[in-house]
Amino acid sequence: MNILVVDDARDMQLILRRILTLMGHQVMLAENGETAWQLIQQHHFQLVISDWVMPIMDGPTLCRTVRTAELPYYVYIILLTGMSGKQNLIQGMEAGADDFATKPIVREELEVRLRAAQRVLDLEHSLEDKNRHLESVNRSLSAAQQLIQSDLERAAVLQAGVLPSQKAFGRIAVDWFFQPAQYIGGDTFNYFPINDDLLFFYSIDVSGHGIASALLSMCLQTLLSATSELHCLEELDARTVATFPSRLAERLNHHLHYRLDTGDHYLTLIMGVVDTQLEQLYFVQAGHPQPFLYSPVTTQLEQIDCTGFPIGLLPDMEYETIHLPFPAGSRFILYSDGLLELQEANGELITEAMLKRCLQPLMKQPASQVIQQLALKLGLNSTSTEKPDDISLLMIDLC
Amino acid sequence: MKLSTHVQGEFTVATIGEARMDAAIAPELKHQISQLLTDGSTRIVLDLSQVTFMDSSSLGTLVSLLKMVGNRGDLIIVGAKGIVADLFKLTRMERVFRMADSVEAALGAVAA
């Protein structure tokens, strides 16, 4: 060990240096606390053996100076004392001394105290090593987390980028709201014309929210795109469209079970077709929240009572197409259950009945304004409240 | 996750002691119930009467447990109410699971 001996008595310094050198240690000498502190700052001492009473700076003050300096390594301090009594020990310990030895110095006793010092220093050393290792692991984890975070931010932009931007198709006007719970989410939707008369649409909520859910939702965007094999199986016309949504749901369910390993993830959806020529709405419900339909005839907003098996949960399920008249002035509103996981000011969850009450008086307004006002009412745009689930809302109007 | 179990006749009644069944507890629920199955308790009554909210990931977990039970036992859901019962209905899972109002009703129905 590198040991610093601090004593104002020259004979004491020499005795200690001789004993310690014979034990195999490297020894330096100082005659008071201040000189010692200067040496400690210049050299790496593992151990300081210091006298108690010295001119300029005494032993306890040296102890305190070393402890407050918070050196990057531990210095073990043995205070020498000719004084006896508990009070002195307490003072020394408070100052930060590790051990005490009484004068005159007995070689055997000092040997034992040095072994104890070595044990403590070894422990300190291994703790320092572990801390250094943890710090380096921590740095790698932070770097990895930052990378994931920036990837997710990028992915969020890409995910929002696949959502449809066109909002008018002949007599049909569409508008939507989308907000993932985290950066990216499992909600998605799309709509596009199949021919001059038919507009295809869907609103999907993949279970869970996070990377796996978001990737599955992107996968579904591809599976349900106009060019996918699920779509291209048939030519749609006014007759076949009446059963198309349920057949497509069955094909998708089959595909998810037998072609795509989705793990524990599945999805709920509403998917359908608006026939603008015959003014009809056809859709399939697969476990998705029950949609609202505004009728220009009754001027009422009604929730459509429908149930269905989610997609990808159980194989070979049967689905049914719901068929409703959709005259000019009708509005079809689809939403994911994230909307129903929001809390009101009183802590209660928002119910479908409440959602309907919010929407009904807004039905004469264009979809974009309805969404704006609903977002305001439910606090959707506030960044301060954390959303428990992805939220999506899709409105389809026939003008 | 709080889950208490007791044996009642041939059945193991597992009661979920949580108000919220969501993604935070779904993996633990799956682990604990599948452990019961591994240990040979294949006739399970899952009591949801204390649950007031269930999300889609928990429903997915229940279905995967039902698949695990398969033909070698039972997984009976009891005590689903409010929006939990609504979720079973909305997703037609009340047609897939055996459901009962209470543990007694479930065991009585099996005995009958």
From TrEMBL, chain A:
- Record-given protein name: Serine phosphatase RsbU, regulator of sigma subunit
Q: Which SMART domains match?
A: PP2C_SIG, REC
Q: Can you supply a Gene Ontology BP term from the record?
A: phosphorelay signal transduction system
Q: CDD domains, per this entry?
A: REC_OmpR (cd17574)
InterPro entries attached to this UniProt entry: Bact_Sigma-Reg (IPR052016), CheY-like_superfamily (IPR011006), PPM-type-like_dom_sf (IPR036457), PPM-type_phosphatase-like_dom (IPR001932), Sig_transdc_resp-reg_receiver (IPR001789)
UniProt keyword annotations, A-Z: Hydrolase, Phosphoprotein
MF annotations from Gene Ontology: phosphatase activity
Ranges of residues in domain Response regulatory: 2-118
Q: Which organism is it from?
A: Thiothrix caldifontis
SUPFAM superfamilies according to UniProt:
CheY-like, PP2C-like
Modification 4-aspartylphosphate, positions: D51
TrEMBL record, chain B:
Ranges for domain STAS: 18-110
What terms describe the molecular function in GO for this protein? anti-sigma factor antagonist activity
- Taxonomic superkingdom: Bacteria
InterPro entries xrefs: Anti-sigma_ant, STAS_dom, STAS_dom_sf
Looking up PANTHER family in the UniProt record yields: ANTI-SIGMA FACTOR ANTAGONIST TM_1081-RELATED (PTHR33495:SF2), ANTI-SIGMA FACTOR ANTAGONIST TM_1081-RELATED-RELATED (PTHR33495)
| Protein family according to the UniProt entry | Belongs to the anti-sigma-factor antagonist family.
Q: What is this protein called?
A: Anti-sigma factor antagonist
From which organism does this entry originate? Thiothrix caldifontis
